[in-house]
Amino acid sequence: MKTLLQISIVGILLALAHGLGNTALQYSSYPLKVAFKSCKLVPTMALGKCVTGRKHTALQYIAALIMGMGLAVLTAADVFSSKTKLQSISDQESLSLLGPILLGISTILDSAVPNLQEQLLQSAKVNTSELIFVSNAIMCLVLVAYTTYSGELIAAYSYCTQHMDASMILVCQGLCAYFGLQCYLAIIRDHGGVAGVLFANARKVCTILLSFIIFSKPFNVRHFLGLVLVFVGVYLGYKGKQQKKKKGAHQKRKSKGDGKSHDHNV
Questions:
Q1: Which of 79, 182, 183, 188 is the most buried (most CB within 10 A)?
Q2: What is the DSSP letter of 249?
Q3: Phi, psi dihedrals of residue 160, rounded to the nearest 5°
Q4: Which residue, among 17, 48, 34, has the nearest Cα to 195 in the 3D structure?
Q5: In 116-183, which ranges are E strands?
Q6: Separation CA 45–CA 56 (nearest Å)
Q7: pLDDT bucket at 108, cuts 50 / 70 / 90
């Protein structure tokens, strides 16, 4: 019963994170949402210390921040390239602080989810299919209730009945998302929540790079800057991991040495 309650909490957090993120678009710009979501790795690492006890070095936090900045620039490069759009964005953002506040709450809630999933998969030994079914069922109920109240559900249903191709795309997207989520949760189960978010970020970069091949988009300086920042973040993350391993090995040797010294004195 306790495990079911924990999975339900994951579903509620997912619904709130998605709902608040989408609601924030009414008060702020899409690039701002991208910037917040791209930096999700940093709060995921910070919350991981509280939820799962995983600790990270300062270099790993810096690497995560740089990687998030690179991903944000890379994702929003097309919007940033337009001066007219940038002007309208700055005008929109100056209207209300509610957008950034909602995005901040959404990002924190979204960052808690991988850590809770890691705890459920590793400690409670929950099956990935069970976790997907229950958490998404709860999220679905919450979102159906909200969209029914807001009127969005009726509008979406009307659109899908008039455009069957959109319905088929949604079905295909749902199937792909399911298999992708299975892989994502398997990574979290075996390597932890932070690793899951890292792979999700790598997927975003691959999606952007693939879009250049499929849609023949122009590659500009901002795309290049974003990629450079992402790769610098990856490199610093690797160095931070090596640094953490060396520190752990040094502490092990030190503790063994202290143990031998104690035995000798006895």
A1: 188
A2: H
A3: -65, -35
A4: 48
A5: none
A6: 7
A7: very high
